[in-house]
Amino acid sequence: MLVAALPVPGTDGAVELRASLSRQRDTVRAHLRTWYRDGAGRWHPTRRGVAVEPAQLGELVALVTTLERAYVAGALPGSATEPDTTPADAPMPGTPPAT
Question: Could you give the C-alpha distances from 59 to 55, 66, 69, in angstroms and in order?
């Protein structure tokens, strides 16, 4: 079940970060996953994302809050005053390239 979606800047609305809930048998998961729109306008999930147990959502909120505070405090040179110019589809450092 889709709960919320956030358009990824610089993608002309073709990529979203989606928050959703799912149930498989007796297991409930909360997902944060990147989705993309194909040429026909259909949305598809990518392999980029994470699924956590609902009990971990508070920890995830705390993690994102800490990330925001570090950014605002200027944890990276220029982070508090300059926008990030990293392309939205750039791999995260230390991750293998998508195949």
Answer: 8, 10, 15
Instruction: Give the number of other Cβ atoms within 10 Å of residue 69's Cβ.
Output: 10
d(CA 74, CA 84): 12
Q: What does the alpha-carbon distance between residue 29 and residue 51 come to, in Å, rounded to a whole number?
A: 6
* pTM, full prediction: 0.68
How many whole angstroms from its chain centre is CA 2? Answer: 14
Q: Give the integer Cα–Cα distance in Å for 31 and 90.
A: 21
Mean pLDDT of 66-90: 70
Evaluate if residue 27 carries a pLDDT over 90: yes
Give me the amino acid identity at 84.
Answer: D
Where in the chain are the domains?
Answer: 2-53
Residue 56 pLDDT > 60: yes
Answer yes or no: CATH 2.30.31 is held by domain 2-53. Answer: yes
